[in-house]
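S.,

Sequence below, as promised.
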Amino acid sequence: MKLLLAGRRGQGEVPLSADGSTGDWLRQVEQWFHDACAGEWMAGARVEPGPHDSLMLRLRLHPAASDLSIVAASEGRIVVSAETSAVGPGYHRYLCDHLRNMGDAHGIFWADPDEGAGVGDATGYFHSANPASIEPGFLAWLHLSIGRLLRRRSVGESGLTLSLPPGHDFEHPGALLTPLGPRDEPWMLGVLEDPSQGRDVFPWWEPTVTARVRLGRALCRLWTDVMWRPPLLDDERRLLRDVARTLQLAWREDPSLPYPWRAWQEVLGYLGMGGTLAEEVHRRAGASAGGPPLGYRRGTLRVDLPGGWRVRVPGSFSESRLEDGSWVARDHRRSVRVLTMEDADAGAPEPSGAERHALDLEHQTERVTSRASLHLEPGLCRLMALYHAGTRRAVGVVSFDDPDEQDWALETWRSVDFAAP
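The prediction came back faster than expected:
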């Protein structure tokens, strides 16, 4: 569900900063959300340049949601945009209520909806405060989306997703991948016949924060974010702690829900957490039914890189950008680094003269030609590659400790592809 709101800020209960700067005001809004959302807050808020010399606050309030953006322009004008379809009617209501309260605190005067300009709330709830149309709106959206996906499936398309963010394609055998796990074709056909059968695909259906909503939040992170190995970075440890805390809060409130006991046990193991609750989780995990383990990142994924490049890496890899602009993914013993030549500077990993001479491996796809050299030495193995896609170039480095991983390194090198950005 699309939410696009326009307004103008005035003088509210929250005073403007001494100089009245837009950046300071957005940081006040960020703090307001942080305080108002309490335990449901997700880190990652940032203020960045917006369109037409404006500033924009971006933040996320749910792991399955796209960013909420608040653009502050000249003369006190603001524009708020969000997409709530992936999360559900409960989240839509929650977000609208918080935006109205934030507007009251900051003296924001909201413009009336304008269907021709696309301004307003697709469900009508933000301006009317009448929740009657929220759930029917989400079911209508789901019915339309599943119909389109089934038509794509009927002509042989695979790798279909619903409400997953772009940029990462999980390689998983499910007919349809969603934030709460895969769904099969019979589920899709059932939803096409009766959309209410698809309520289970929304992690936040209820109008308030309940144990089921907390469970849905944790499941989204387990399916799409957890890397299923001991944490390598502080952010990964915080992620695991957030999952463990959310599951614990839900279980304390309602222990009868279908908790992911085996996955929960793994998370506690990665954190080294014990105690009475950990013992209960261990007992429940041992008694739970078998079946495929939960989590898309147990397999591989294709990642979209800057400039139109793509690469296939294990889902257990964490990702970051270095100061020279290169993209890096790694775990405890392997790493992949790709730098597009448009971003290259003096610190780019350009091959040395000897390495250029040793580029004795060749590979070619429909769009990419590459040459590589492979150096194997226990504890210090490296594959260096140069990629060409028309006039575009990129440099890749695959590093690994164990020479027996060379097949993986070669497969990773050959997986680099290019599509117009």
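The mean pLDDT is 91.

Coffee later?
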